Amino acid sequence: MRVLSLSLLSAAFAVTQVSSANAQTLAFISCPIVRDTSSVPCWLSEFEGQLYYLGIQTDVSADFSPPSLGHKVLVEGTVAGERTEICGGLVLDPVKVSVLPELSPECNTLLMAEDRYELPFEAPRPPGPSAGRLAFSPPPPPPLPEPPFSERTFEIPYDFDGTVNFQSPRFLSPALTYAQHVNAKRLEITGYRTAVALSSDEVVHERESLGTIRAEQVADLLRGAGLTEPEYVVRGIDELEPGGPESRRVTIRVIPGA
Question: Exposed (0-12), middle (13-18) or buried (19+): which is 92, by Cβ within 10 Å?
Fold first, then answer.
């Protein structure tokens, strides 16, 4: 089970909330809220009396992974200067939503549909494989390079305190394909763990050794996919690295063969 630790660290990090003429960056932990509509449910969350729009209910092919009732979420996002509203909540764009593992039965708010909150989306896709109207197809991959090949680094992003999930293959696949294409002689895989400064002046940090866990898991997945010839250099940076979602990552450096 993942462990979430909250502590008041007065001097460790600056508060995440930043105000300017154009944008406001927030990080907060709150219950997710689902609002029904005539087209597709939307997800919201509340912080300091303000509702924020997170995204729509869709499948794992989309960039936004819907949360679930019964668990709190860590929300990291930016309110655009124009303060656009969808579903009654201010839009956060970009936004990253991480579901926290502890059960929170108080997170059970379901709002009924209202005509004023109609969404310009088609109805939910029919049952079956992810190829319906709310399935999102990634752009085609770029063409593979011709020799001579160069070193290339790929990044695998993570939810807060998380390991690989249903979205991870879309980030792992390009690294695997490139390593196979260039007959890689070495893979340098590095995992990181982070701390997030909340807008409430608190700091949350990921569990110990998570950088190592992430790096080793990625290495195991690549070996399991048949990439067994390269030398693997696997390490975790388990010291807390302050930052936002982009800091929660594994990097894969691919060194081509001769």
Answer: buried
CB atoms within 10 A of CB 176: 19
Residue 165 neighbours by CB under 8 Å, 6+ apart: 65, 159
Query: Which among 100, 109, 85 is positioned nearest to 28, based on CA atoms?
Result: 100
Tens digit of each residue's pLDDT (9 = 90 or more) over 186-241: 999 999 999 999 999 999 999 999 999 999 999 999 999 999 999 999 999 989 98
d(CA 197, CA 186): 36
pTM of the complete model: 0.81
Cis previous bond, 138, omega within 30: no
- Output the CA torsion sign for 79, 164, 166, 170: positive
By residue count, the chain amounts to 258
Tokens found for residue 55: 């995204």
| 3-class secondary structure, 41 | coil
- Fold that domain 152-255 belongs to in CATH: 60s Ribosomal Protein L30; Chain: A; (3.30.1330)
The answer to whether 2 and 161 are in contact (CB under 8 A) is yes
Pairing between strand 186-197 and 231-242? parallel
**DSSP class of residue 164?**
-
Q: At what angle do helices 168-181 and 210-224 cross, to 10 degrees?
A: 60
C-alpha to C-alpha distance for 216 and 250, rounded to whole angstroms = 10
Q: SS3 of 247, please?
A: helix
Nearest to 232 by CA among 197, 187, 182, 198: 187
Map out the domains of the chain as residue ranges: 31-117, 152-255
The DSSP H or E segment spanning 76 is: strand 71-80
